[in-house]
Specification:
Chain A has 320 residues and is mainly alpha-helical. Chain A has 15 helices and two strands. Chain A is globular and about 80 Å long. The two termini of chain A are 16 Å apart. In chain B, 73% of the residues lie in helices and 0% in strands. The chains are: A mainly alpha (320), B mainly alpha (304).
């Protein structure tokens, strides 16, 4: 919608601007700045100040004593040094990265497969699949995690029942969330279930751009399905695929809420914490705000680094 | 995207292909289509199952929910679980909190983001590109990288457990993407239209209100629904900013509702009824704007 209507207008806009050296409307006016004031103020208040606070606090010894009035002591990069030499942090970092890459990978592969299914299926099944995807996409995260906890309930959950029915007697009364490995398996299932629709529908939209004529020509030239996918389909959808994968990686790093909700009710918290949960435990749990702030800064920098290609592609769209 | 129909039909009967090559091709295509159709239906059923299971369980009496053999369909189904969930004050209190926070967020986001979008799409000014880059990066920042500081900030000004504090944080978090989203819509309304109105005697403001604003309505609806979904579903910031039981939003309440019953055996029927109640407004809104969402999907982080 917006992407399809705006380019011609913007192109015309640019032409006009190119011809006239000065900006067309109200040169050097204060108006744009005035219009930005409310948005900028709210962002500075809601996100700018917290970031500033975190930078300052991450350089301080800021624990429980400071909460009771003792002035914080400046320790330079002490918190960072302490954290980044601690095996606890690295264990969480690697676990988070592994979890993130596994989830993003599975999500994108399944999304690609489902997009190809939509493209290949006839009209009605395609619509059915699209509606199913939209329903899963629309589910609020907290509700989705709650439903999965019910599906995987150890006593009367439908998953254990089904597994027993098909012959896995061990599944009777199996507590999925009580062990790290199966805990992360359930977490992956929830996250993949929620994330695949976005990927599938995005890639399906991209697939509709693949030229049928070219595909037909390739068939006549004897290309098999794999060749056609690799040499025609993939190059066409590559930009969308790259962005979707990148977004998925960024989103799968921020799974604090899903993990937190799954931990309620007896999961081994220490072994299942990922980065966000680690920060929460340090800050709200132990009151060690200096270290929590240092890890937060690390997470923010990681996100910014990962977001760079995405932001660049959006900017290109703005200029185009 | 549901409107896009395959062009496979016409291609199959292309006159250019010779009889020899066109004969086997259609059968293979049809077989492939049939297989894909069956697979699509199977995948759809698997994907829809959790939603079905939520609604199904929410309608079952406790004996059937607690039975070791799951009930996939029941003649005893009814809305009793919903009645019990809606009976206490706690759901309605959380609903009130959610509505207040969500609506205030939507209103502030729409006004502030609209003004911001106007600035970046109608004016070229020093710092414009930096502002856009900053917005794009800010919208990617995860709540878990900020929530400790936000918690300290709110507690230092006594705004923990208040709708005001959460609304400020939500508004700040949602504005960057909505500015970006609305920018496209504002740019889509040519300034010449407005200028034509001014030539015809309208004031600048008058031209804006009478001409531009109505054309922007779809964009504002999309941005509003986006803000609604973000605020309504948000859990992470709410968890730190609203620690008191009496100030919970619905996602926090649902978590508490599940955990509080965990000791004496969860009544999953009621929990699923509660989940359904929270999900229904979201699903309705989501389906209304899905075309827009998937249309702009790769041009922005729609759901994060």
């Amino acid at each position: 919608m917006n992407t399809t209507t705006s380019p011609p207008v913007e192109a015309a806009d640019r032409l006009v601007r190119g011809a006239v050296p000065a900006p067309r409307r109200r040169p050097r006016s204060a108006a744009p700045y005035a219009l930005l004031v409310p948005a900028v103020l709210v962002i500075l208040l809601g996100m700018g100040y917290p970031v500033y606070w975190q930078i300052v606090t991450s350089l301080q010894e800021y624990g429980l004593a400071q909460q009771f009035g003792q002035p914080p002591e400046f320790v330079g990069l002490g918190n960072y040094a302490e954290l980044f030499t601690s095996s606890a942090l690295w264990a969480v970092v690697w676990k988070s990265i592994l979890f993130c890459l596994a989830n993003a990978g599975i999500t994108v592969v399944l999304g690609m497969l489902f997009a190809l299914l939509m493209k290949a299926a006839s009209k009605l099944p395609r619509a059915v699949l699209q509606v199913a995807m939209l329903l899963a996409w629309a589910m609020p995260m907290v509700a989705a995690v709650t439903v999965f906890k019910w599906l995987f309930d150890y006593r009367v959950g439908v998953v254990n029942w089904l597994l027993v029915q098909i012959g896995f007697e061990d599944a009777r009364g199996f507590a999925w969330l009580a062990q790290p490995l199966t805990f992360f398996l359930v977490a992956t299932l929830v996250i993949v279930w929620m994330s695949v629709p976005f990927v599938a529908l995005s890639l399906y939209a991209a697939l509709t751009q693949v030229s049928d004529e070219v595909m037909e020509a390739a068939s006549l030239d004897g290309a098999n399905a794999w060749h056609k996918f690799w040499n025609i389909v993939l190059p066409t959808i590559r930009p969308v695929l790259a962005i979707v994968l990148l977004l998925q990686i960024i989103w799968d790093l921020r799974v604090f809420a899903q993990i937190r909700l799954l931990q309620d009710g007896g999961a081994p918290v220490g072994e299942t914490n990922l980065l966000g949960n680690f920060i929460y435990a340090l800050g709200v749990g132990e009151g060690d705000f200096g270290s929590a702030a240092a890890v937060s800064i690390f997470v923010l920098l990681l996100t910014i680094a990962l977001s760079w290609p995405y932001v660049r592609s959006l900017l290109k769209e703005d200029e185009a | 995207m549901t409107t896009t129909t395959s062009t496979r039909g016409p291609v199959r009967h292309r006159p250019g292909t010779t009889a020899a090559t066109s004969q086997p091709a259609p059968r293979r295509l049809r077989l492939g289509t049939a297989g894909a159709s069956v697979a699509a239906i199977v995948v759809a059923l698997v994907w829809i199952f959790p939603v079905y299971w939520m609604i199904n369980t929410s309608l079952l009496p406790r004996t059937q929910v607690q039975s070791r053999t799951p009930t996939f369909f029941s003649l005893d189904a009814g809305f009793f679980n919903y009645v019990r969930v809606l009976d206490g004050d706690s759901f309605l209190n959380a609903l009130r909190m959610s509505v207040v926070v969500t609506l205030s967020t939507v209103v502030f986001v729409l006004i502030f983001a609209f003004l911001g979008a106007l600035a970046i799409s109608r004016f070229r000014f020093r710092g414009r590109t930096s502002f856009i880059i900053a917005m794009l990066f800010i919208q990617m920042l995860p709540a878990e990288g900020l929530f400790i500081a936000q918690y300290r900030m709110l507690s230092s000004v006594n705004l923990l457990n208040s709708a005001i504090g959460v609304t400020v944080l939500y508004t700040a978090a949602v504005i960057p993407f909505t500015v970006w989203m609305l920018r496209g819509f504002v740019a889509g309304v040519p300034a010449e239209l407005e200028e034509a109105g001014m030539v015809d005697g309208l004031s600048r403001t008058g031209a804006f209100i009478r001409i531009t604003f109505p054309l922007l309505a779809p964009g504002l609806v999309a941005a509003g629904v986006y803000a609604f979904l973000q605020a309504w579903n948000e859990f992470t910031i709410a968890l730190v900013a609203l620690p008191s039981n009496s100030a919970q939003t619905l996602p926090l309440w649902l978590r508490g509702f599940l955990n509080s019953s965990a000791s004496q055996g969860v009544n999953w029927g009621e929990v699923m009824a509660a989940s359904t109640l929270i999900a229904v407004p979201v699903i309705v809104f989501f389906l209304i704007v899905q075309g827009r969402m998937t249309g702009g999907l790769v041009s922005g982080a729609v759901k994060g």
